[in-house]
Amino acid sequence: MKVHTKTAQKLPGLVAFGLIISFFVFHQSAYAGMMDEPLVTKFTMDKLEISNAKNNPKKWELDFWVMKDIQRIVFKSEGETVDGETESENMLLYGHGIAPYWDVQLGLAYDTHEEESHNWGVIGLSGMAPYFFETDIHALVDSDGNLGLRANTELELLITQRLILVPELEAEAYSANIPEMKLGSGFSSLALGLRLKYEFKREFAPYIGVAWHKKYGNTADFSTEDEEASLVAGVSFWF
Amino acid sequence: MNTQKPTIGLTETQSQNVSRRTFIKGAAMSSALAGVGFAPSQLLASMPGEINNQPTVTRTNTLSGTEFQLDIGTSIVNFTGTPQIATTVNNMLPSPTLIWREGDEVTLHVTNHLDEMTSIHWHGIILPFEMDGVPGLTYDGIMPGETFTYKFKVQQHGTYWYHSHSGFQEQNGMYGSIVILPKEKDPYDYQYDHLIQLSDWTDEDPADVVKNLKRMPDYYNYKQRTVGDFFSEIQEKGFTAAFNERKMWNEMSMMDRDLSDVSGSTYTYLMNGANPATHWRGQFKPGAKVRLRFVNSSAMTFFDVHIPGLKMTVIASDGNLVQPVEIDQFRIGVAETYDVLVEPEDAQAYAIFAQAIDRSGYAIGSLTTDAEVLAEIPEMDPLPILSHTDMAMDMKDMDHSMHGGMHHSQHQGMNHDMPAVDHSQHQGMNHDMPAVDHSQHQGMNHDMPAVDHSQHQGMNHDMPAVDHSQHQGMNHDMPSMNHSQHQGMNHSMHNMSEVDANKEVADWPVEQAKIKWGPHTNMRAEDAQYRLSDPGVGLRNNGRKVLTYADLRNLYPTRHDAKPDREIILNLTGNMERYMWSIDGIPYSKADPIHLKYGERVRITFINNTMMNHPMHLHGLWSDLETGDLNYLPKKHTIVVQPGARISFRVNVDAKGVWAFHCHMLFHMAGMFRKVIVA
């Protein structure tokens, strides 16, 4: 998968920033005790898939976190590469538990679109809503004062203990046009997915599914394909 | 693989024949296969001899006397088909059974051959705190290459056990039994004496098990509710009823099939170190009395034990004699011990069947007249499903409008598996008293220990005609009810009941630390009740006589014990989704010690704000459990607090020093732990 050169330059900076934050965060919570809360990490490739849409785009969605007690550093990345052009959304966040099932998150986002990139500050919520909806909501603000909102929720429906149906909904909205990123003001996009995965083990599940997305308003005007439905196939895994 | 290490468990021949799947699924094995590779007669316990007019315990790996050398090291074991390295004592799994005699002074030299620190804690043994074996609390632990010598006088008798108190060594195999022979013969005659030590084994590194639970709390639960279950409920009850039954669980993001954090998907359950394929066997002759000493040395597993075709008479609990009670089945919490007597009449094999609480597997052995004849493997009971009773709780974040939404009908729908008595009244209350809001409810339960629900229950049982009006009357007064009114009420109830456990209530000051609700806690027991006569989820109304704590009465009177000087209320808390555990919302690492005064008698009450059973173990001091009759409080070292329930016990603070007080679920222990200082 091709990573844009600018992305490649900035990502190490983001990661280094994350490591510095984690040092301070976790260092101060290192207390004496028989058995402390362990430092736990998790890398999740939630989606790594190919679709039958035009030019067979490849898509990824991953996150990595380092957690101790109710604090964690999270790196998230999702994007799509088609015909050698890549667009992605990346976030580096500090998360702190504020409720039994919810973390508040604070950090930076870094978007890429072909040759261009865009930085945001992020505040958000991540957790589990009633009825077991895994939900992320992130509010974005850039240096010009433009605002964005990204929300994502998904549910795991067990057909059997290993065959799992995952409906998903994703929506974005922006306060202004950001032409270099092909983002327009107002409600900009909606994506729905329905994936059926089989957990050979907890850590590894191939899946097939259907995905549909639509761009709205000014965002649609920037795009040639404003609505697309496709079949997808991929794997999810974590460790 | 280091071939010089001795192999315990299966021989190599067996490991080739028996696949991992066979064990973890607990599938029925033919006895022919199970017998491959060893002569069963070698495993069969032999006829007991006599020491001090007591039958000796028949185990091949027993050590007796007053001086012991215990060597901590590693051994290769094979329980699943894959050889693994276990942490062992004297190369045995379980560790050797130690036979002590009441009144003796025992000396135990423990040498650490590991490359990490180790320790041995003598579970349930009354001794000076320096000998208790908790690293960081009572001593520094035993460093690699070092020998620590324990020396103490044995002041009790019965069935106990010992285990490592360091890291996860206990999960990795470091546990053994202790049988202390009484100075004077105890009042039971029996011809055979078998130890039944239950445990759970995983091929995974226990630290990885914890990390898996942190990464994915339902990692080991392969018995979750499916979409199909929901559709069949819709067919059965209609959409509205089915949906409403799910509603509360869904709103709280909790699962009614969350019985065990760790399951048979990784565990192989062992009986005396034998997996279901190798099948432990113990001898008897028809008509003879057999004493079975059950010890649950699991890291994380509760077992439901029964012996199809035999009644069991419980004679001791946690080492201490109780008034005999005849039962069909008992649930044994982690770290508890029960002694039972059985009298098999027929020359056949009887299955000792210990199902894991979540029915994801079992440990099994046979009581048999012929080592070649194994008992048929019984069917496992249905999967227990948690009910509203097991919750007695409410999510902190749930607002009142949601509460308002929980109407009578929905309530009813959710209460399938409940002990019939208390909730019908509860329902009545909710129905009749819409004005009683939850904050008041909560206030009452938290601040008024005088409301003793065991009494309620007892009374309701005895006098169905009376209790309803009383109950209602009480509820009417409730919003304005004060302490004295309440008390008066209890007294009048008491007059109608044999039970007087609550007579003394409110005579002593009650101390409760401020509870820290927040991200560390995802449940709150809003209406935690005493459920002493509740056998627990999955065992209610199952057609068997199941032991409950209400059945446990000390064999000897305890009426000479003083009244408590004060009461300490401790809330067991946790967040299963984040997989963290605490007391009063505060994990051990951030908690202040509990201070007890030497010479005082204190009542401790637990309220379980989680959906898990927690076996709470107080080191060094007996826990006199309030089971209904103050004159015969049974002494225990480990007390199971059922999900959403409350329970009280009394402690004679008769040993100075520093003691550990914690949940004995190994993976709950880091947070659900307190240091107790007696000065």
Question: How would you describe what is shown here?
Answer:
The complex is a heterodimer of chains A (239) and B (679). By secondary structure, chain A is mostly beta strands. Chain A contains two helices and 13 strands, in the order αββββββββββββαβ. Chain A has a twelve-stranded antiparallel barrel with strand order 1-2-3-4-5-6-7-8-10-11-12-13. Chain A starts with a helix and ends with a strand. Helix content of chain B is 19%, strand content 30%. In chain B, the strands form eight sheets. In chain B, strands 25, 27, 28, 29, 31, 33, 34 and 36 form an eight-stranded mixed sheet that branches. In chain B, strands 14-13-16-21-18-19 form a six-stranded mixed sheet, with no helix packed on it. Chain B is globular, with a radius of gyration of 25 Å. Classes of the chains: A mainly beta (239), B alpha/beta (679). Chains A and B meet through strand 4 and strand 9 of A and helix 5 of B.
Measured distance between first and last alpha carbons of chain A:
21 Å
Question: Rg of chain B, please?
Answer: 25 Å
Low-pLDDT stretches of chain B are 1-59, 393-501
Number of H- or I-type helical stretches of chain A: 2
**Helicity range of chain A:** 10-25%
Protein name (chain A): Copper resistance protein B
InterPro entries (chain A): Cu-R_B_prcur
Domain Plastocyanin-like (chain B): 76-184, 247-355, 563-678
Protein name (chain B): Copper resistance system multicopper oxidase
